[in-house]
Amino acid sequence: MNDEFKKYINLVFEDNLDINSSKNAFKLIMEGNISEVQISSFLSLLQKSGIKAHHVIGALEIMKSKMIKIESPINSMDTCGTGGDGKNSLNISTATAFVLAAKGIPIAKHGNRALTSKCGSADVLGELGINIDMDVSKIENCLQKIGICFMFAPNHHPAMKYVGSVRQQLGIRTIFNMLGPLMNPANVQNQLVGVYSNEVFDIYKDIFENDDQKNVCLVLGYNGNDEISLDGENKVYVKHAGVFKFDPKIIDLPRSIDKEITGGNAKYNAERILEIFRGKKDSFYNTVCINAAFGLLLNDNEIINENNILQAFRSIEEIIKSGQPLKVIESLSKFSNY
Fold first, then answer.
1. Model confidence over 281-299: pLDDT tens digits?
2. Is 262 within the bounds of a domain?
3. Residues 182 and 132 placed together within one structural domain of the fold
4. pTM (two decimals)
5. Is 158 a member of any domain?
6. How far is CA 220 from CA 10, 75, 288, in A?
7. Which helix (H) or strand (E) holds 149?
8. Which structural domain range is residue 259 located in?
């Protein structure tokens, strides 16, 4: 039991944790000096009292200082949600990443195994035959040659080993869900990122507005989805357009059918990705296409409007029809296992 850390638990309990206290608390956690009981108390209380922008910024500074980075090409992109939306949907951002890579956009995908869901990006990639544990020294070459790489979070954030067990045992979203998309080891220029609540949306917006190096499309999906949903209005932020609402019905996309978008275990989710890439058109297909369409517009730095979205959606359909996403999966599998 760390007596110094008790002070930070009390500050969280009293909702008085400022940015310097946040830095100090996360420094102690990431140095392995804090018991799992204290970490659990701290994370749970912080979640309950309400995570604020200065908590994220303070934690982020510590996390980035311990991160194992890689170099990435200009205009590299990550498609990553916070998770923790409780929807148990299929791996939409992972499927979206393959489609955008097939378009020739360098994708530096950052992710982990499932912590608050049944199947994380690392789990589904493993089922697709991709070695998620590829040596970090090979990842830059993978991105250069294949046009996509996967950065397994534990390999790039070794200090996370001190909180991994606690997160799994808690089984609830914590500040680490919010930190994940902000800690891309390739420091990508473009990010298509989904969040699960208005509070997180506002925190991310504040952070990205003050980062001149980032080109971002931030999404709060309908009903708390952490990606663009077919089922209603989605809240979107891009720097050149500010905040706006987008409902896929304006381009005549149907609402989703629950069974077509709900995920299962890694094997099931992997098969569903292959199904839509082999030509099956359903709610999962439409959801991946509309999310990839926004990624395409982000990459091209296009003004987002109804006409552009529809055009981008059709372009994404052509990419899938070409079979290129399947070839990207095959190439990544071969390279990562070589």
1. 999 999 999 999 999 999 9
2. yes
3. yes
4. 0.92
5. yes
6. 32, 23, 15
7. strand 148-152
8. 77-336
Judgement on whether residues 184 and 305 belong to the same structural domain of the protein? yes
- Long-range pairs, 212-215, Cβ under 8 A, ≥24: 213/187, 213/189, 214/189, 214/190, 215/189, 215/190, 215/191, 215/239, 215/298, 215/301
Kindly state whether residues 134 and 192 are assigned to the same domain.
Answer: yes
For 263, half-sphere exposure in the C-beta direction (CA atoms, 13 angstrom radius) is 24
Measured CA to CA in angstroms, residue 111 lies from 10, 36, 123, 124 at distances of 32, 23, 10, 11
How much is the average pLDDT of 315-336?
Answer: 98
Residues 96 and 144 in one domain: yes
Report the alpha-carbon distance of residue 119 to residue 88 in Å, rounded. Answer: 8
Counted domains in the chain: 2
Q: Annotate 318-336 with DSSP letters as a single string.
A: HHHHHTHHHHHHHHHHHHH
- Measured CA to CA, the distance from residue 271 to residue 77 in angstroms comes to 25
C-alpha dist (Å) from residue 164 to 153, 186, 314: 11, 22, 41
Judge whether 13 lies within some domain. Answer: yes
pLDDT tens by residue, 202-236: 999 999 998 888 999 999 999 999 999 999 999 99
Are the beta carbons of 281 and 316 closer than 8 angstroms? no
Q: Which two tokens stand for residue 87?
A: 């929807």
Instruction: Tell me what the pLDDT averaged over the chain comes to.
Output: 93
